[in-house]
Amino acid sequence: MTVLMRSRAIWVAVLLAVVAAALPWWISGYLLGVLTVAFYFGVFAMSWDLLFGFAGEVNFGPTFLIGLGAYTAAIIDARWGLPIPVCVVAGGLVALVGGLLLAVPALRLRGPYFGLVTLVAVLLLQNAIVIFAGITGGEIGMMVPDVMSVDASHNYWIALAFLVVCAILLFGLSRSAIGLILQASGQDAIGAQALGFDVTRHKLVAFCISALFSGVAGAMLVFYQGTASVSTVVDLSVGVQIIIAAVLGGRRTILGAVLGSIFLIVAGEFLRPLGQLNTFVVAAVALAALLFFPDGLLGNLLRVKERS
Amino acid sequence: MNDAPLLSVRGLTKRFGGLVAVKNIGFDIRPGEILGLIGPNGSGKSTVMKLIMGIERPNAGSVKVDGVEMAGWAPHRIARAGVGIVFQHSRPLHRQTVLEHIKLALLPDSLVKLAAEPHVHQRAREIAERVGLAAVMHRHPATLPFADLRRMEMAKAIARDPKVVLVDEPFAGLTVEESAAFSELIRGFRAEGRAVLLVDHNVKSLSALADRVLAMYLGEYVAEGTAEEVMRNETVRRVYLGGKLELHQRDRAAANAKQPILEVADVRVLYDKACALDGVGLQVREGEFVSVVGLNGAGKTTLFNAVSGLVPYKGTIRFNGQDLRGMSGAAIARSGLVQCPETRELFGDMTVRENLDLGGYHVADSVRAQQLAWLFKLFPILESRQSQTARTLSGGEQQMLAIARALMTQPKLLILDEPTLGLAPVILEQLSKALDALQKSTPITVLLGEQNVRFALPHADRVYVLEHARIVWEGSAPRFEQEMGRAFLEAAPPRDSNGMPTGEAGVKVR
Question: Could you list the residue range(s) of the whole structural domain that residue B96 is in?
Fold first, then answer.
């Protein structure tokens, strides 16, 4: 029965991906642009869910990792003019190293302190960017000389392909043996240790994977938008949006994070005519969902299954 | 043929701040041997288990598994070296099936193996069948009864193929049939040549199973031998049964005429699947001192928490003529029903005086000063410790502070939950004197929960006996001695033949 359910879920995902791939023939360039951003956010949120949903650690600073990746890629491109793939890979690696430097000491802390450390890291990065304005462009942000494509459809397809690849990798990981050990570590650390698992090492690896995907996605976003700025890839409010997207979609589901991101970004865009009210309405909807459906969209579906 | 011990513990010592939880404990377990570690609540037996598993680090002593010193290792290394543990309470993963839980336990601690090896699936099925989970192995934990969750914990331990198995309260929350099945599984460990350590508070429940029993009290070794020998040991008898009972009889007539201040009727509490209270009813009249006695796990704390509005319940609880249903814990406390919990819940980083002042936050300044003066007369030691932080007090002083803080609120009814927990006999005497003084100097009503009968009886006007989630006896203190006496504490837990989960339902969350 579970096998049937699971395979059906996968078919639904494949169907959605195919429909999404065909969208450029149907909808406007403007909408494609909105979805492109939403897809990158989807990767941010999936990476975050790996850490929160599976390893059980709340990372309040996803934008620390994203920002590291984005700014590294932007600086390398602007200074040395290296090709985009090199910049993106470098962004991912720097995010990984930065994440490692942050997580090794932070994972020694217990309870809410890990989350606080990640929060402070974002502020630190934000300040560093402002202080070294000569290199980073400071609060205004920096332009990158290269962009991936000027064609909205191409950009859309690149983002979609990236999202699908990341989803397959992260979802696969979550369903693998390591995903199982991670869940045990996150939900009952003592129990997991008593089964012989090195909980700290597993959480550290989860953090590194999360950092790598976040960094790469951040770098890609820079080459789509043509700029790197604090307000789009580092600011705390961006991090909060990612967290809301992941929780809205459903904790511990990975794929739910994509749905949550698309909903959040698209809703924000559609409500833009409301002006100031726009963010308020989106936040209110998110709050209601968190209060009344804490398991999120996919989480609720799975819950029904668990009880059967 | 092989007589070298698999688990060898020497001089194990653990201190938590000023409290010595485990003091110089040592024992050996050979292959195919079952050792029962017993002691009342707070005796340090669970700490010993945690020290062996590495969940707590010992301050001193040695833990050798198959000759390898492991004291101070991280739990995952100890687990890999061949020690397995069956927790009393599991925290299962909700999205995984039973079989997946067992597979988890079969996985190596590796970051590169993404898929389980093929034999894992087969092995997991075999283990599920062995522990009796074959029929439910594809179900999720949320749908399983309590006993099956414990079977799953057992299965996870078996999957690691440990040389040494630690089992925490093996029969807690189980029916007769389930207990028998668990005994069989544990005998299976013995037959396979594993060393087994069972931790429990009751000698009787282990006597049929354990080859040897070691009794602990207040962190120290008390006796070791066969179950029979340990039960005959003088110190063990005193620890479990108390010495000679001294009763102070008060005039009952006046108390009987008073109105009931607390009425509990047909109260039922379920924790997940375990039944912690089953149709409990009792009454406390104004000015009365009522003791509820029962072993650890009988449901005393649950009863008090239900009365204090801290756990949901079925049935009715009336205080001062008012139905407490729907009232918050804080509102109940303000109405004059104050609990002094087992865990004391002091503000550790605040001084003694600050703790007391917080207790008296809602009373007028002049009254507070009076209360304080009266309490310092009741507990002189607290006066001299006023500026010390609560954390640095000894266990007995902390208990006095907890009681004093509860009294600062000027309660109509004071609930004391196991005030003697983990206290040395000399402290008990001081506490007993203070309670005596309290009884004589105020018209306060007290509801006391205790497993220490010697402490609970002297003050009591009436006694209730709580056993396995039910009130099984009610009467005066002298009658208790005649009718219940020793039989009460030595009695094997009566199990419900209908297969109802009566068991040791006062299960504690890890």
Answer: 7-241
